[in-house]
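FORM 12-B: Structure-to-Sequence Request
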């Protein structure tokens, strides 16, 4: 069964393009995006890794660390980085984990337990389910999982939008409605009573139905 939202993000130690990673220690007090890839030198993943390198400052501005994973050796990741730079103009500027024994992919429920113990000889199709993106909070709990097919590139602007929403909830007990963008009205979460909401929002709120309390976005 896939890891659920609010489950503990499994800890691990693994090699990466920036040296050994002890995952929970590496996250520290930050938020984290872990995004996985079935194999090096695959076309859609090449574009994704380059886009994430370009967008890294936007994630850092939100206190989010980026880390990738691909089921191939770190040595291959290093060679792949040259292709990523050629194709996109940006080489990965964040760690890319090697998972040659498939342990992390299994730990995060992206591959079945009987998938074997080595990446050698496996094709991208063999690892096609290693296409999940995880957002992990400073509490080391999973806040979001999205799995993509190999043929569909990720929309990282959407990941930033979700992180903005998650951080709004964590800091101010506010949720976001469908298709929300920065600056639009937000939702007072049900855990906040009307009495407490009146203290926090003295100008009141709009309530098309009693349980949907909309207020202006905080500045």
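FORM 12-B RESPONSE
SEQUENCE OUT:
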């Amino acid at each position: 069964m896939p890891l659920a939202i609010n489950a503990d993000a499994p800890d691990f130690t693994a090699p990466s393009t920036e040296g050994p990673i002890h995952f929970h220690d590496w996250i520290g007090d930050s938020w984290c995006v872990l995004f996985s890839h079935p194999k090096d030198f695959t076309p859609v993943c090449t574009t994704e890794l380059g886009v994430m390198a370009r967008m890294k400052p936007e994630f850092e501005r939100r206190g989010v660390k980026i880390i990738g994973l691909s089921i191939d050796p770190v040595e291959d990741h290093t060679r792949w980085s040259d292709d990523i730079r050629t194709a996109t103009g940006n080489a990965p500027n964040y760690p890319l984990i090697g998972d040659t024994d498939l342990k992390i992919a299994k730990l995060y429920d992206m591959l079945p337990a009987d998938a074997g113990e080595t990446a050698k000889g496996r094709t991208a199709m063999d690892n096609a389910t290693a296409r999940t993106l995880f957002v992990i909070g400073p509490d080391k709990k999973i806040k979001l999982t999205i799995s993509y097919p190999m043929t569909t590139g990720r929309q990282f602007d959407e990941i930033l939008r979700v992180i903005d929403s998650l951080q709004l909830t964590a800091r101010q007990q506010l949720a976001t409605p469908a298709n929300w963008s920065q600056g639009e009205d937000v939702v007072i979460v049900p855990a906040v009573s009307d009495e407490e909401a009146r203290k926090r929002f003295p100008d009141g709120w709009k309530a098309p139905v009693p349980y949907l309390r909309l207020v202006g976005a905080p500045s």
